[in-house]
Amino acid sequence: MQTRCRTLTGPVSAAVGGAAVLLVLHVRDPHVSGSYGYCPFRLLTGWWCPGCGGLRAVHDLTDGQLVAALGENALALPALLVAAVVWVRHVRAIWRDDQTPIRAPSTDLVLAVSALCVAFAVFRNTPWGQWLAPS
User: Which spans are transmembrane here (predicted)?
Assistant: First the structure.
């Protein structure tokens, strides 16, 4: 039992760190221009990167504004959900003393997610995808 609790130190630390980030994003509004700095990709290219609007989306989620969050960055909510599911599965595997480690994502999955992010970035910078650009 003591080993199991010691093994949970990492996931619990990650959860506490994530909660701290959520608290900071809830208290300090990223909608204020420059409150967290500026996106270097946006400054260099003038394009929205796949992450642009992500802080504002998380802030909106902490306020319970799901539609506003999706309007800021449509990829932020699915990314947060995937991170939460992976965290829960990891903790459950530790708690059950599962000897099967959680595997790293396959190369195909990494390439597919990367292609999705690139396509999202390109599309949100076209006239047809401006509705995906942060406000």
Answer: 7-27, 66-88, 109-126
Whole-angstrom distance, CA of residue 131 vs CA of residue 7:
44
What is the rounded distance in angstroms from the CA atom of residue 103 to the CA atom of residue 105?
A: 6
Nearest to 114 by CA among 75, 87, 72, 80: 75
Burial 52-68 (b: 16+ CB within 10 A, else e): bbbbbbbbbbeeeeeeb
pLDDT tens string, the chain, 135 residues long: the values are 566 677 788 889 999 999 999 999 999 999 998 899 999 999 999 999 999 999 999 999 999 999 999 999 999 999 999 999 999 988 888 888 876 667 888 999 999 999 999 999 999 999 999 999 988
- Are residues 81 and 70 in contact, defined by beta-carbon separation less than 8 angstroms? no
30-35 long-range Cβ contacts below 8 angstroms, 24+ apart:
30/55, 30/56, 30/59, 31/56, 31/59
Q: Find where tokens 């990492």 sit.
A: 10
CA atoms of 110 and 112, how far apart (whole Å): 5
